[in-house]
Amino acid sequence: MRVNPVGDFDSIAKEVHVGRKNVQAQSVSQMSVEDALRNFQKKLKKFREVLKSEAEFQIDRSTGMVIVKIKDKDTGQIIRQIPPDVVVKLARTIDEFLGMLLDERA
């Protein structure tokens, strides 16, 4: 019986290559599972923050915009405001500017 060293090397190389692909596939799937778990934990944390908060609705008289403030129930601190305060101030400024233009034209 004769052993072909080149043939044996090829079969061993194929096994190692297939094994490496399996290890890579496992590490990639494990990494994606870990990333998905981290992402889920972040979203769950945000959801918990929303659950322990309350929403306050206001109407800005000068612009007529509805403003929603999300506040922490325990501290009363504003977590988020929709639309942001900068947008409300910008809308007020634009309204004032348009008012001045209309007054000058009349």
The averaged pLDDT comes out at 75
Beta-strand share of residues: 15-25%
Q: Main sheet, how many strands, which sense, barrel? A: 3 strands, antiparallel
Low-confidence stretches: 1-7
Number of helices, where a helix is a run of at least 4 consecutive DSSP H or I residues: 2
Rg over CA atoms, rounded to whole Å, is 31 Å
Pattern of helices and strands: HEEEH
| Count of spatially separate domains | 2
Going by helix content, strand content and strand pairing, the class is alpha+beta
- Strand arrangement, major sheet: 1-2-3
- General shape: elongated
Count the beta strands.
3
The oligomerization state is single chain
The span between the termini is: 110 Å
Level of helix content?
55-70%
Task: Offer a quick outline of the entry.
The chain is of the alpha+beta class. The protein has helices spanning 5-51, 85-105, and strands spanning 53-59, 66-72, 78-82.
